[in-house]
Amino acid sequence: MMQTKAEAIQREFNNRGIVLRESVTEAKSHAFQDGITNQFLILNDMSGKRYLIRINGKLWPPFTREGEHHNLEQLKKQGFDTALVANKPEEGFQICDLQDETKNFTRINVKGHRISAIQAVAKTIQKYHQLAHFESHYSFQQTLSSASRRLRASGNIEMTAIYRVVVSIFSLITRDDKEFVASHNDLLPSSIYFNGEKTVIVDWEYSGKNHRSYDLALFSLKSCLSPVEESHLIKNYDPEGDNRMEYWLPLMKAGVNFLLLLWELNSSRDEGVHNALFLFKTLQSNLQDAFIQQSAKLVFTEKRCLFFKPERKEAKKHRLTNNNQENTGLDNDGLVSLASSL
């Protein structure tokens, strides 16, 4: 007889000697159905400990449940706490210890405590970047191209121009393999908890190799870090400057900011418009920071567009071509920023 997902989850608890206050079937009276999005269920054992059950939804390429499983095993091997109890990709579910929401990064409001938390996060990111070895890969450029396809097809001239600028900026980020490390790729402040001296990071389903600046850029943007807070993030991740994070982070933030904006514009959620307006504002600042980081100087202002010209002619070598990259039609002698029009 085919086992329902609820029965498979119950069996996993039984095999671990965990006695639940109510059975999985009682807690969720119907068998779980496969779906596009993840489903979640909270269960309690007899001691009062709580568990979060994730019923797997669909993952889009390049992500796979097998890839997530491998990465979780790597993190466990290196001693990282991901709150994982059991991961069963073949049976379509995952069991985690439910974390205390009062210890979530988003709940930290005191300035001094927030700085300490940012420092702890930076050191944890640096450690898993250094120690873990993921097999799967995450392509930022492919994701950006896919997310922008609908807007580019709509004929929105300004958004298309911004897209070209972002891709041109991102082309300056190194292709050196040593800069692509084991990354979380969805490092939201809500995924970070502090359990005593331990930093716990959950939700690794989008994990894979990525440029080392991506996790820091997304965390900084989603946490709305101030310049002072971001400097603590960089200093504690890259204290000796060996990874050139002061250089990479502004470039990556511009790209990630634009990607977040595209997702909001493609979203049907009620808060999408409000979030998009906020991201338009931050995009202006992050594009400007990216150009400043490239030692770009203002040549002239014409109407609503700013044209920047890098000081070093050799920067031309980064120009995009159709050789495994997308040709944006822009070179680094004529990067166009629409930041002033946002």
Summary of the model, kept short:
The protein is α+β, with helices and mostly antiparallel strands. The chain has helices spanning 5-15, 24-27, 65-77, 111-131, 140-153, 157-170, 213-222, 227-237, 245-265, 272-293, and strands at residues 39-44, 50-55, 84-88, 93-97, 180-183, 192-195, 198-201, 208-211, 296-302, 305-310, 335-337. The chain has 2 domains: 5-98, Phosphorylase Kinase, domain 1, CATH 3.30.200; 102-341, Aminoglycoside phosphotransferase (APH), C-terminal lobe (Aminoglycoside 3'-phosphotransferase, Chain: A, domain 2).
Features:
Phosphorylase Kinase, domain 1, 16% strand, 10 helices, alpha+beta, four-stranded antiparallel sheet, three-stranded antiparallel sheet, Aminoglycoside 3'-phosphotransferase, Chain: A, domain 2, 342 residues
Molecular structure report:
The structure is a single chain. With 342 residues, the chain is α+β, with helices and mostly antiparallel strands. It has two domains: 5-98, 2-Layer Sandwich (Phosphorylase Kinase, domain 1); 102-341, Aminoglycoside phosphotransferase (APH), C-terminal lobe (Aminoglycoside 3'-phosphotransferase, Chain: A, domain 2). 41% of the residues lie in helices and 16% in strands. It has ten helices and eleven strands. It has helices at 5-15, 24-27, 65-77, 111-131, 140-153, 157-170, 213-222, 227-237, 245-265, 272-293; strands at residues 39-44, 50-55, 84-88, 93-97, 180-183, 192-195, 198-201, 208-211, 296-302, 305-310, 335-337. The strands form four sheets. It has a four-stranded antiparallel beta sheet, with helices on one face. Strands 9-10-11 form a three-stranded antiparallel beta sheet. α6 runs antiparallel to α9 (245-265), α7 crosses α9 and α9 packs antiparallel against α10 (272-293). The protein starts with a helix and ends in a 5-residue tail after the last strand. The relative contact order is 0.11. Mean pLDDT is 83; it is low at 296-325 and 327-342. InterPro entries: Kinase-like_dom_sf. It comes from Legionella taurinensis. One of its GO terms (molecular function) is ethanolamine kinase activity. This is Choline kinase.
